């Protein structure tokens, strides 16, 4: 079924496949988070993801996508998203955003988390926590009959009321057989506006919060997005299914509802 000419509603079987892939993704992401420590190189993170995916029989969504050269996006400190793993070594006090996607039986799942490396500053801890809470605020607003702007506003208002800016140049998205499907899911907007959410929609909701100004720039590698003013950034993401009640998080180990 098509909504608004572009948004494809997923069947129960399709959602179950995304749920199964999402559970694998959550397991790998959790194992990866447990490995984050000072002295770990971002290349080692990429190698770990490839090995885990190979062992589990799934494919990385990002490797080769529009030419991206790695299986995972690793973004450190002022880097917001799309960081390319390489020779950089994580240091005590860094914060690192890990964005991970996989393909399971033809369906995609996508999730991201930001974690501290060793002991981090209270400012960094608060940014990470608020980003996670803004994601949950967005997911709570994602109900059948609500509008997309309700989700966007829930994220924006939660972040801005706590003194953070929301990145506007990169947004969430629908997801299914393709990594990026309709509709785009901005992290800013007006309540009561936009597409009406319906049971069967599957969305990747992913707030990116920054301490300073929301404007961004792309580094010379053509991928890594950083804050224009050099301030810290954090990123959190889940793939969720719209139901007739609370949204279901498909990239949680327990298939949680919020």
Note down, in words, how this protein is organized.
- The protein has 258 residues and is an alpha+beta fold.
- It has a single domain (2-249), classed as Creatinase/methionine aminopeptidase superfamily (Creatine Amidinohydrolase), CATH 3.90.230.
- The protein is built from 4 helices and 17 strands.
- The strands form 5 sheets. A 5-stranded antiparallel beta sheet has the order 10-9-11-16-17.
- It starts with a strand and ends in a 9-residue tail after the last strand.
Strand order of the largest sheet: 10-9-11-16-17
- Indicate the proportion of strand residues: 25-35%
Biggest sheet overview = 5 strands, antiparallel
Shape: globular
Helical segment count: 4
pLDDT below 50 for ≥5 consecutive residues: which ranges?
1-5
Order of helices and strands: EEHHEEEEEHHEEEEEEEEEE
CATH overall fold name: Creatine Amidinohydrolase
Radius of gyration: 17 Å
Fourth CATH level, the homologous superfamily: Creatinase/methionine aminopeptidase superfamily
C-alpha termini separation: 26 Å
* Level-2 CATH architecture: Alpha-Beta Complex
Tally of discrete structural domains:
1
Overall mean confidence score, pLDDT: 95
Number of strands: 17
- The helicity comes to 25-40%
From the helix content, strand content and strand pairing, which structural class follows? Answer: alpha+beta
The first-level CATH class is given as Alpha Beta
Describe what is shown at a glance:
The chain is α+β, with helices and mostly antiparallel strands. The protein has helices at 12-35, 42-56, 122-141, 148-160, and strands at residues 2-3, 7-8, 59-60, 72-76, 79-81, 95-104, 107-116, 165-166, 172-174, 181-185, 202-205, 208-210, 216-218, 225-227, 233-235, 238-241, 248-249. The chain has four helices and 17 strands.
